[in-house]
Amino acid sequence: METVSDKRVLVVGLGASGIAASRLLLAEGAKVTAVDAEENATLRATSQSLVDAGAVVRLAVNDELPGHFDLAVISPGVSPSQPLVQNLRAAGVPVIGELELGWRHSFCLNITITGTNGKTTTTELVAALLHQAQRRTLAAGNIGTPICEVAPLTRDLDVLTLEVSSFQLETIDHFRPAVAVVTNLTPDHLDRYDGMDDYLRAKARLFKNQQSFDWAVVQQESLVQFRALDLEPPSKIVTFSSRDETADLFLDRSLIVSRLPDWAGPLLDLEKCKLNGPHNAENLMAALAVGRVMGLAMDEMRETLENYSALPHRCEFIREIDGVKYYNDSKGTNIDALRRALEAMPRGTDGEKNIWLIAGGQDKGMPFHDVGPELSLRVREALVIGEAREKIRSAWSLFTACHPAESLAECVQETRRKANPGDVVLLSPACASFDMFANYQARGDAFRHLVLQAAKESAG
After folding, report:
1. Separation of first and last alpha carbons in the chain
2. Percent of the chain topping pLDDT 90
3. Does residue 24 come out as left (phi exceeding 0), alpha (psi in the -120 to 50 range) or beta?
4. In what order do the strands lie in the sheet with 265-269?
5. What angle do CA 161, 163, 166 make, to 5 degrees?
6. Which CATH class is domain 8-99?
7. Over the stretch 313-322, which tens digit does the pLDDT of each residue have?
8. Which of 80, 101, 241, 457 has the fewest Cβ atoms within 10 angstroms?
9. CA 264/CA 191 separation, integer angstroms
10. Which residue(s) pair with 316 in the sheet?
11. Whole-number Å distance between alpha carbons of 412 and 149
12. What's the pLDDT at 236?
């Protein structure tokens, strides 16, 4: 472990990750200065505990270096291209991310999951399998609890289970997962990356420091994308896919099947699982592969995976009102997530279109037109909201009727008026939430509240 005692460390960004990094650094004896580009009452309140613990906190800092530093730690939401980060590097200050800092102060191996969609569910599945097998673990990282917050606890763990984003991987140095998992790779965060290739390179940094005795559990289609850019994982590889039957784990109707020579045959029947849809089949496959690598018993894994329920905001069934089913997929913030949600929805009678789609929010540079064919087959009307609604309407109007709306409340009112028994109302925004809500959870909670209120009104 590299000591930070008495070192001058700058922490950039005072969200949850920056606060956790600052606290860890202070506990390790560093001289901490923490900054944020914003200045508001919430930041002043949340950062006061750092001031009380001995840190210097400065707000409304954009590009000027507030001193001389031996190390800088940046939060995931802080782009490496920001002027302050560029000035740090120009001054010769080493720059790492909160993930790297937390890993340097951890005391156990880690299983790390990334991907465009499904990484949170897969992280939860892996942690559940480990708990069932009496392996001591915590789920941390992008899933909600910063790694710097749990690093002191890792002395008592067998393994740390991490969800990480491409933003976090941009600023690793020596970070190394014993088992690296990639769920899938589809366009996302194109407002931050120059293109899909740059996004893939950021994700491939997960394998940067792996050794030949480590493991990579990778969706087959993602591995093809990596190899096209000469980004071959250096570790042992297990592949999975719901569409490609050449993968090590694949989907045969409702069965997850393994072709691994020492683990061949059917593993899990989706019809016995609470999770549904091809996207969840891949999440289950990834968890099974990790369990196999970790030496977990198949009977215990099967029981755990069959009984696992979907997390909130991920194709979450809310209520049926007058024969119409309402689903909350607020976590679906990109086109591929929308596509997978459409696949998972109940079908209409005789294949008729039966989905009323609520989409929109803050655009992340999404190629909205790419999902047009799926919309034309499944969606009766799209109700579009938020900053991106006109862009979405322009992209989708050739494929389905589009209704611009001012709010989620208006969308629920419209679907209550228009939808028929057997129809589905699906919130799957394909956008970030920050134009109208604090986060995707707040957006999903608001939708759930509106639906439950409508159910009360219907009941009378």
Report:
1. 63
2. 95
3. alpha
4. 139-141, 159-163, 109-114, 179-182, 215-219, 236-241, 249-252, 255-258, 265-269
5. 145
6. alpha beta
7. 999 999 999 9
8. 457
9. 43
10. 328
11. 39
12. 98
Distance of CA 269 to CAs 23, 266, 284, 285, 394, Å? 45, 8, 11, 11, 41
> If DSSP codes are grouped into helix, strand and coil, which group holds residue 163?
strand
Classify domain 106-306 by CATH number: 3.40.1190.10
Residues 6 or more apart in contact with residue 236 via CB below 8 angstroms = 212, 213, 214, 215, 216
Q: How is domain 316-459 classified at the CATH fold level?
A: Protein-Tyrosine Phosphatase; Chain A (3.90.190)
The CA distance from 130 to 431, in Å, is 33
Ordered by start, the domain boundaries in the chain are 8-99, 106-306, 316-459
pLDDT tens digits, residue range 155-205? 999 999 999 999 999 999 999 999 999 999 999 998 899 999 999 999 999
Confidence of residue 349 (pLDDT cuts 50, 70, 90): confident
Which residue, among 338, 306, 271, 327, has the nearest Cα to 125 in the 3D structure? Answer: 306
Query: HSE-up of 263 (CA within 13 Å, CB side)?
Result: 19
Q: Which tokens go with 432?
A: 């970030």
What's the whole-number mean pLDDT along residues 293-303?
97
SS3 track for 250-305: EEECCEEEECCCCCCEEEEEHHHCCCCCHHHHHHHHHHHHHHHHCCCCHHHHHHHH
Task: Give per-residue pLDDT as tens, 72-128.
Answer: 999 999 999 999 999 999 999 999 999 999 999 999 999 999 999 999 999 999 999
What pLDDT is stored for residue 351 in this prediction?
85
| H-helix or E-strand spanning residue 19 | helix 16-27
Q: Is residue 90 classed as helix, strand or coil in its secondary structure? A: helix
Burial of 324 (C-beta count, 10 Å sphere; 0-12/13-18/19+): buried
pTM for this one? Answer: 0.90
- Residue 275: what residue type? L
Q: How many helices (H) and strands (E) does the chain have?
A: 16, 20
Q: Which amino acid is at 363?
A: D
Digit-coded pLDDT (tens) for 15-33: 999 999 999 999 999 999 9
Angle between helical axes of 408-418 and 440-459 (0-180°, round to 10): 40
